[in-house]
Amino acid sequence: MLLRCAILVCTLITANTFAMPITEAEFEKLRAEIRQASAQSPLQAIDTTDDILRQNDSQLSTRQKIRLLYGKAWFQIQTDDVHSAISTLSVCKKMSIEVSDPIILYSYYSLTAGALTRMSLYERALENYLESYRLAALMETDMFLKQTENNIGNVYLKLSRFEDAKSYFERFYQDAKERNLPQQMGVGLNNLGEAYFGLGNFKKALSLHLESLKIREANNLTYHSSWSHYNLGRTYLALDNTELAKHHLTEAINIRKQSNAIADSIAPQIELMKLKALTGDTKDLEIMLYDVISLSNEHSRFQEKTHAYQLLVDYFSKKQDWKNSFMTAQQLMQTKFDFLQRQAEIGVAFYAAQMNLAIKERDIAQLTQENELHQINTQAAKSQLILVLVGVLIIALLTLFFVRRINAKNLTQIETLENLKATQKQLLESEKMSAMTTLVSGMAHQLNTPLGLVVTSASCLEAKLKEIHDLLNDQKLSAKQLKKFLEESSEMLEMTANNSGRAADLIARFKMIAASLDSSEAVQFDVLTYLKNRSELITQSLDKNIEIDVYGQSIQVHSHPEALLKVISQLVNNSCSHGFISQSSGRIMIEVREDRDSAVITYQDDGVGINEAEQQQIFEPFYTSQLGQGKLGLGLNIAYNSVVQVLKGKISYEHQDCGAKFVVKIPKRTE
Question: What is the pTM of this model?
């Protein structure tokens, strides 16, 4: 059962991680969805493209993503969002390094030319169209060739070279008709109508636009039909049929607004205002022109904005409102300047794209060279296969030989390690014996004096007692001699008692070296509160005027409070004995603070401090700076053992310019 569950989980993870790539048939369905959206409006097509890219990111190939992004760039060009189109094309250019396909480069040049045409950069647009035309001629199908001819025709149309444009449009339309492509047929007829309009043949233009509108409406190409209505409005206006001109221009405006192509509705609105100006219907014309100018501003439609300002200048001039006419003329010139500036920006973006193209060509050349080298290396690898196999066999034999040698060395090293461990153990035992010898020697040295005096007193008392006994037996003992004997005996007994007490006191203090003698159980207590309460008792027991200031954070610990008190008491005694030796008063500061899982107690006095030469030995037993003055040198050693052995913490000394400073760090919980 467990194995089945594991297999099921692995299957689910694999299915999510390695998504199946989208086939070409599935990809064409996605493109059909985008085409259907584009029939409504370019903005809807852009949104649909973004949704498809986001939802199928892991399944789409690089080539498929580029093709979708090219479509998005084309729709951005249709909405005059040229900056976004250039940005999208730049992304495609970077991605195309991974793909070796002439169609990808063709689309790049073609779409770049389209963006440049939108900004009236016709010469640069022609350069790119000619490059795409060169690539289209190398392809198996002439569909791309005809599309490029139609694009070149559009540039000639913008340059007023109507005859040249007409020849290109005718070839494009005939090809679309032979292939039975309704959308392309509508485009071809519409473009032919614009060429005849430019040549002044308005009747021919009218018949072509009517035929284009019929095809587009029959195939539900709603948005595309707006172009036919727009051109029909212009044509009827040229033929002085104002009613039909107004009808078709209004239809173009409504379709584009319904398709959310607000920017594209500006041009037919301007034509409608021309119509109103020609017919003398100037009511609300000024307001409508300002609305169009505002809309052009919002959508960065500089050419339409220029036409609107020109109409407004003519309107004010006709009314002889010279002041407004002059001000509007200034705005017209500023708009033209802004358009030229935008042209320059697009030109910079174009050259940046050209630079990227140069990089791609270099990369392709490098990849080609690497591929050739790879083929050479593959051929060489085949001829060297036998040598490789022989080499592998030799390496295997050498590996076996060296493995055996390494195993032998490992055994030797293991034996050496065991010997080192034994030696280390012996050294530890030696260090223990050395430490024990030092401790015993120190204790013997300290006990030797009082015990020696006790023995001496006992010997003297024994001799005196024998002398008195002999005098008593000979009946020669006088009262004076007895009195002297009693006085001397009393002195010697007093000396014996004093030194015996001193020896007992030394032994008791020796016992304090073993911190394990503190048998108190660990309890929960607040360090700050405990030390504050006990500091008063410590102060009262001192023979000097010492102020102890305990402050800091309240920290709960589970430890041995008596051991902690012993440490603080030893530190206070050390300060009184050494730090305040030449002063009758002093101050001790004890700070309690928290450090993660530990309590840190900082002890500091304002005494003479400890010189650097003695700081390395202060925690050693029997080390004192007042040797021969009744000091044993055990206080700091007792504090050290209490902190390390009982409280399971650390104690250290920090050098200060004035006074002594000890830092005690104990865990919050002692097991």
Answer: 0.46
